[in-house]
Design goal:
Layout (H helix, E strand, L loop, with lengths): L1 E7 L6 E4 L10 H7 L2 E8 L11 H11 L1 E4 L24
Antiparallel strand pairs: 1-2, 1-3, 2-4
Length: about 100
């Protein structure tokens, strides 16, 4: 899927992914207000196998197909479930 990514100028490290370029009318009004002015960041062909630094491509694609947009927020420090598993190697192999 071809998609478009915009950076929020109000909320640092927050990005809006859109299925159509400049389709801001799809956003709920309160979300548009929260994000404020958006700057076009990039255009990308996304498929479920593409590796993204902070997002699961399948989740992004599902949101884009269902509602036309996906919100990427900055990672939150200290969230359970987002901590690395120090007992596993880089491929998930046990280090013990």
């Amino acid at each position: 899927m071809h998609c478009y990514v915009y950076a929020s100028l109000r909320k640092a490290d927050s990005y809006l992914w859109l299925a159509r370029r400049d389709a801001f009318e799809l956003l709920p009004a309160d979300l548009a207000t929260l994000l404020g002015q958006l700057r076009f960041a990039l255009e990308v062909d996304l498929d479920e196998h593409r590796r993204l630094p902070l997002e699961d491509a399948r989740h992004v694609l599902a949101n884009l197909r269902e509602r036309g947009w996906h919100l990427q927020l900055p990672p939150t420090e200290g969230l359970a479930g987002h901590q690395p598993d120090y007992h596993r190697g880089p491929r998930g192999d046990s280090t013990h």
